[in-house]
From TrEMBL:
Name of the protein this chain belongs to: phenylalanine--tRNA ligase
Catalytic activity: tRNA(Phe) + L-phenylalanine + ATP = L-phenylalanyl-tRNA(Phe) + AMP + diphosphate + H(+)
Protein location: Mitochondrion matrix
One GO location term (cellular component): mitochondrial matrix
Pfam hit, one: tRNA-synt_2d
Entry GO MF terms: ATP binding; phenylalanine-tRNA ligase activity; tRNA binding
Keywords linked to the UniProt accession: Aminoacyl-tRNA synthetase, ATP-binding, Ligase, Mitochondrion, Nucleotide-binding, Protein biosynthesis, Transit peptide
SMART domains reported for this sequence: FDX-ACB
């Protein structure tokens, strides 16, 4: 399972363990109650609550935050980098995370008794709807839009503990690409048929309908694309290895692992799309590959962010580090202090007939406030009819060592005010 560091819901081996754990979890959850009485409102819709409902007010409160669309969030920068890399692919956003069981499970050929369907692993809105547990839930929607190469990024939901590396809401990117008889990748190798006409046998390395030599080409196309993609996102020639895997919707399937901090870390799942899945979507003549990758884990490595919970913070000390960056900027996150910020604004009329440079003010503030200054920025500016100019600056104070008191910050703030009025002749508003 992607983005959840240790647990796997798809691989057969761990099913039993999860089933035992799941039983324990669901009993506990039932006892504690979920806080919704008759219906639950999510985005624009009301859903009746029933015995299957296990979403909580807490998880519902995170729906619609759309971190991957918010400038200033590293997940937005990463999403932009992904879109840039896959610029020839269609890009889809599905803002509503509520999907039916068909989308999340059935259309992906996930068996009825598969562990991922359990209440202990998935958030059920009610017996018919879940909060999508992966972006693969939208494969079918994109295929119905007649797309043959697409990328879809979305928030996904899985019941899990919350700690430095796990969160019940995280983000994934799905990429998908179809080929047909006339695709240049096949034609150029002298191949003009994708499917076996006789001896339909499924082996470890191919599905019954596919020709082995075609699968080999698509596998190599897919792996080359993905390796370059990951290298591009992580800016370095990071060691990688492909490991065989199992997913109900692809065969053969692989996971890609990268070597990071003395450990092999799994970062994505991929494979040759099950032909049955395509046929069910009315596509008979194509073969393709799909991949699903978790964004948080990648962003944590890319920007050296130590805790997954930081993506959810509104702390400007965190967000300001990513706010004005471009997706290709190599940003190294600087840890913010665990002590609270103190925010003071300062507004004044600029001196007339003097060229005013904001950077001079920033330097002055840092000069007086030293290490207590976390950020300074203009938050408002306007000019009156008479040509008088006003600026408002926000100064964020925070110490790495201790909790600051309002009084001590006030002393520094007053010093800044005094300096600009006495030396620079501004008039406080
Ligand atoms: N949906 C899988 C998960 O969340 C990831 C995945 C694996 C997506 C293989 C794919 C794929 O498209 O081909 O763990």
């Amino acid at each position: 399972m992607l983005n959840q560091f240790k647990r796997k819901i798809w691989s057969q081996k761990t099913c039993v363990l999860n089933a035992i754990k799941g039983h324990h979890l669901s009993t506990k959850a039932k006892e504690s109650g979920f806080g919704f009485k008759e219906s639950v409102h999510i985005l624009d819709n009301n859903y009746a609550v029933d015995d299957w409902t296990n979403i909580t007010p807490k998880v519902v409160s995170l729906i619609g935050r759309n971190l991957y669309l918010k400038k200033g969030n590293p997940l937005y920068l990463l999403s932009e980098a992904i879109r840039h890399y896959f610029k020839d692919y269609d890009f889809f956003v599905f803002a509503d995370p509520v999907v039916d069981l068909k989308s999340n499970f059935d259309s992906l050929l996930i068996p009825k008794d598969h562990v991922s369907r359990q209440k202990s692993d998935t958030y059920y809105v009610n017996k018919d709807y879940v909060l999508r547990s992966h972006t693969s839930a939208h494969q079918n929607h994109c295929l119905h839009k007649k797309s043959t190469a697409f990328v879809c990024i979305a928030d996904v939901y899985r019941r899990d503990e919350i700690d430095r590396r796990h969160h019940s809401v995280f983000h994934q990117c799905e990429a998908f690409r179809l080929y047909h008889n006339n695709s240049p990748q096949l034609i150029s190798r002298g191949i003009n048929h994708v499917f076996e006409s006789h001896k339909l046998v499924r082996t470890d390395s191919k599905q019954e309908n596919h020709c082995q030599e075609v699968v080999d080409i698509i596998e190599s196309e897919m792996k080359t694309t993905i390796e370059a993609f990951v290298r591009n996102l992580l800016w370095e020639d990071i060691p990688m290895r492909w490991v065989s895997a199992y997913f109900p919707f692809t065969h053969p399937s692989w996971e890609l692992e990268i070597y990071h901090n003395n450990d092999w870390i799994e970062i994505l799942g991929s494979g040759i799309v099950e032909h049955k899945l395509l046929q069910n979507a009315g596509i008979n003549d194509n073969i393709g590959w799909a991949l699903g990758i978790g964004l948080e884990r990648l962003a944590m490595i890319r920007y050296q962010i130590p805790d997954i919970r930081l993506f959810w913070t509104n702390d400007s000390g965190f967000l300001s580090q990513f706010e004005s960056a471009c997706h290709s900027d190599k940003i190294v996150y600087k840890p913010i202090s665990s002590h609270p910020q103190l925010i003071f604004d300062i507004s004044f009329w600029l001196p007339q007939q003097v060229f005013w440079c904001c950077n001079d003010f920033y330097d002055l503030v840092r000069n007086i406030g030293g290490d207590l200054i976390e950020q300074v920025k203009v938050i408002d500016e306007y000019t009156t009819k008479e040509g008088k100019k006003s600026h408002t600056y926000r100064i964020v104070y925070r110490s790495h060592e201790r909790m600051l008191s309002k009084d001590e910050v006030n002393v520094v703030h007053k010093q800044i005010e005094r300096y600009v009025t006495d030396e620079w002749k501004v008039a406080m508003r």
